[in-house]
Amino acid sequence: MSDPRRVPCRKCGEPIIFVMSLKQRAIPCDPDLETHVLTPGVVVVTPDGRVLRGTEESKETSVQGYTSHWATCEYADSFRKPVERSDR
């Protein structure tokens, strides 16, 4: 597998890559493939597009993957779509 192409984030300018999810959606990630321990609160995007979330039961498990850029970009909220409230 070749290394994914790095591009700058449109907001912060840091390098990112896009990993295609199992649902065929591009997930922006920080470009470094690292070993993560799946402790509670940790979310990892694997190179094959799986999104793994750490739980109390998985805290001894290590996995290779990427950190979602949404977790590290200071401008992540500006990319989120507003949620329509149906109770109005």
Keywords:
two-stranded antiparallel sheet; 30% strand; mainly beta; globular; 88 residues; 3-stranded antiparallel beta sheet
Rg estimate, integer Å: 15 Å
Number of H- or I-type helical stretches: 0
- The number of E-state strands comes to 7
How widely separated are the two ends?
49 Å
Strand order of the largest sheet: 1-2-3
Name the helix and strand elements from N-terminus to C-terminus, one letter apiece: EEEEEEE
The chain-level mean pLDDT equals 89
Low-confidence runs (pLDDT<50, min 5 residues)? none
Task: Outline the structure in words.
By secondary structure, the chain is mainly beta. It has no helices and seven strands. Strands 1-2-3 form a three-stranded antiparallel β-sheet, with no helix packed on it. Strand 5 (about 45) and strand 6 form a beta hairpin. The termini are far apart.
Can you give me a brief rundown of this structure?
The protein has 88 residues and is mainly β. It has strands at 7-8, 15-20, 26-29, 34-37, 43-45, 51-53, 62-65.
Strands, helices and their partners?
Elements (H helix, E strand, L loop, with lengths): L6 E2 L6 E6 L5 E4 L4 E4 L5 E3 L5 E3 L8 E4 L23
Antiparallel strand pairs: 1-2, 2-3, 4-7, 5-6
